[in-house]
Known about the structure:
Elements: H1 2-11, H2 17-39, E1 57-67, E2 76-83, E3 92-98, E4 104-106, E5 112-114, E6 116-117, E7 120-121, E8 126-132, H3 135-143, H4 147-150, E9 156-162
Amino acid sequence: MIRAGIKAASLWKAPTRAHLGIAAVAVALALAGTVAWLVNKPPTADCSAEAPADHKVHEIRAAKIVAQPWLGEHQVYGIFMVPEWYKYNTKYAAGMAVRGLDRRFVVGERADKQYVVDDVLAGPGHYLLRIYVPTRVALWFLVNGLFGDLRNPCNWTLVFIERAS
């Protein structure tokens, strides 16, 4: 009985560096494949023309979305083409919403007001507003399989709400 135990123990060998290396490569490839699949997953919702129910609310869809959270901070933002009329009008409060997220992002005075951003050129009577989303929010979309929704411009809305008089 003891000889059988010794014989069985001598058949089992501890993993070598080669075995550990192969296992590490397999895990890395599986992880890379999963991330690539999540990044390239299409949007879950289509862009339907939804009209706001309140006439005191004005919505503007994003002209372009940049969503590259793996490049670091400030690499997830939307570019909105806003009529010049809103530039100096204090009658409206502005906020930005992304479909699939329960919160709104406040648009402050420090937001970029430009006429050319990336490859987007503002039309006549408009300026461009770049609004950033925290990288952790983009990673939340990625982990939950909703990254396609985040990259879809129709899911980003800049909302101007008329302030109470």
